[in-house]
User: Which sequence fits this backbone?
């Protein structure tokens, strides 16, 4: 299963890209082990980054007659406020995106048949923007994959949103653990392929063993974070303290 990711990984990295991958592994490890403790702040920061990036890039991609910097500020503000007020929705969206990525990999592995993914050369994609690259990616998928993938991705997104709306505590744990594990896998595999390719022999060749290992690591991260999260009684006490502190400050206490 993991071997299916190897053709998608760049085979040469610059020093800056290496540092980015190392930072990605560290950030993923932190998110996997203790992300749920600060999930509200993390989700808000992600929303601000997504809103700002979308506000800056969308006018460029579609040649809209608006100022990209103004749109970036507006997008970051709107998304950040929305995430701070309703973090459950953004936690569900992030989890849904991660599950969609895994659903895409699963559909490719199960339905690709004899198809082999060939990465585009640099000169082929240098004139493409992100929407054009995504369209090219979609057109190059085999027909069996394109028939099933939309339903698999929709199921993954709906499941993530439903889980987080019904059981927000478990949703936070699942989102942070799954996102951190995915970051560690992708960035770590990129580092291994480019700097320590001999380590690939330690990956179990059987897909079932790989799946069991990933599920075990996912559950371990959720278990560790469960121990770090305050229980409902402690959360109520913290909320009461936050309500009282401004009143005491007004009274000069």
Assistant:
């Amino acid at each position: 299963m993991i071997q299916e990711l190897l053709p998608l990984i760049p085979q040469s990295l610059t020093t800056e890209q290496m540092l980015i991958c190392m930072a990605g592994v560290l950030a993923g490890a932190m998110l996997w082990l203790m992300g749920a403790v600060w999930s509200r702040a993390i989700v808000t920061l992600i929303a601000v980054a997504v809103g700002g990036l979308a506000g800056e890039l969308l006018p460029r991609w579609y040649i809209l007659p608006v100022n990209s910097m103004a749109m970036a500020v507006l997008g970051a503000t709107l998304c950040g406020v929305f995430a701070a007020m309703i973090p459950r929705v953004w936690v569900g969206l992030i989890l849904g995106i991660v599950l969609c990525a895994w659903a895409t990999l699963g559909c490719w592995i199960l339905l690709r048949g004899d198809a082999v993914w060939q990465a585009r050369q640099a000169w082929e994609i240098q004139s493409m923007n992100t929407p054009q690259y995504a369209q090219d990616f979609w057109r190059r998928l085999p027909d069996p994959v394109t028939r099933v993938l939309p339903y698999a991705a929709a199921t993954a997104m709906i499941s993530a949103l439903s889980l987080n709306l019904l059981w927000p505590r478990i949703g936070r744990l699942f989102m942070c653990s799954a996102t951190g594990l995915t970051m560690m896998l992708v960035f770590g595999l990129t580092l291994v392929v480019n700097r320590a390719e001999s380590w690939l022999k330690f990956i179990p060749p059987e897909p079932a063993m790989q799946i069991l290992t990933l599920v075990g690591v996912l559950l371990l991260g959720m278990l560790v974070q469960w121990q770090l999260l305050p229980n409902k009684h402690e959360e109520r006490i913290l909320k009461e303290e936050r309500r009282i502190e401004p009143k005491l400050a007004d009274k000069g206490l």
Residues 2-250 form one domain.
